Amino acid sequence: MRTKAVAATALLTLGLVGCGAEIAPKEATASSAHYPVTVDNCGEKLTFAQKPARAVTYDVGITELMLSLGLADRMAGYVMPDDKGKVDQVAWKDGYQQTKWLSQQRITKEIALDAKADLVFAGWHYGFDEGSGVTPQAFRALGVDSYVLSESCRSGKGTERGVMDPLEALYTDLANLGEIFDVKDRSDRLIADFKARIAAVPQPERRPSVFLYDSGQDKPYTAGKFAAASEIIAKAGGTNIMGDLADSWFTAGWENVVRRDPEVIVINNYGGTGAEEKRKFLMSFPPLANVAAVRNDRIFVLDYVDLVESPRNPAAISALAAYLRTVPAP
Asked: What is the C-alpha R_g of the chain?
C-alpha cells in the first residue's frame, strides 16, 4: 500500500503542477456598469449590487475555487477544519498567503461577523446546517450575502443533495463566481482548461468497478451519483458501484458493497483516521475478505480535496485513470 500511495501522490503532483490556474494580479475596481449582476444558485436567483470585498469561505475545496480565480484579495479569510493537503503543489498556492485562516473549527455566524464578511461561500454539510443555525437565511437576516456550493444543492427530496452532474456543478460555480466578482475572463479560461484536460485523459480498455470509502466501520460513508467523487471515477474510466443512488455523500450498508463486488477501492484520505488505518481496516474486515478489491489488494488513495468539488478534480481524474489502466480483466 505504501508503494501504491507514493505512486498515487506522484501522479497527482504532476497533474496539480500543470493545472493551468494562475493567481491573477490585483485589478482595478470593476466598473459599476457590470452591476447589479444576477446568478442562479441551487434554483434561487441571487443578485449582487457590487463586487464582494470580504468573502469568507468554508472548507478547502470551496476556498480553492476562489483562489484558483485569483480572488484572494476579495476574501476576509477562510475557515478550514482539516489539513489543506499538498498546498505547495497547486498553482494557486500563493493565494493562501494572501488571505487569513480564520478558524480550524466549524464556521459560525460570529466568525463571519467578526471578519466583517459581505459574502459567505459554503455548502449544505460543507458549513451550512440547519441544526447549528448556520444557514444562508440566517446570514441574510444579518445583512450578509451567501452562495451555496452547487455540489451540495438540496434535491427537494428531504436531505438528499445533488441536482446536477458534479463536474457541471464545478463549472457552474466557477462561471457564477466569474460573474459575481467580474472576472469572467478568468473563469472562462479555467473552465475551458479543465474541460480540455479531462477530455484528454486516456481511458482504460474497460471500466473497472470502484467503491469509494470515506469512513465508517459499522456502515460505510460513500459517494452517490451527485458527489464529485462519482464523476471523478467515471471520467477516470471506472464505474462507481453506488453511482445509481441519487444523492451525493451518504451512509450505505456493507452488504451492498459485498454484493456489488468492486474491483478497486478508493480511500478518501482526511481527518483523524488516516489512509493507512482505513486500508488496514478494509483489508482485515471479514465481510470484505472475498471482495475482488480486497482479495487483490487494489486500493488507491486520494485526498479529501481531490474528491469534493474543487479545482483539484481534473488532476484527481488523471491520477485515478492512470491507476485504473493497470487493473487487469477478471
From this structure: 20
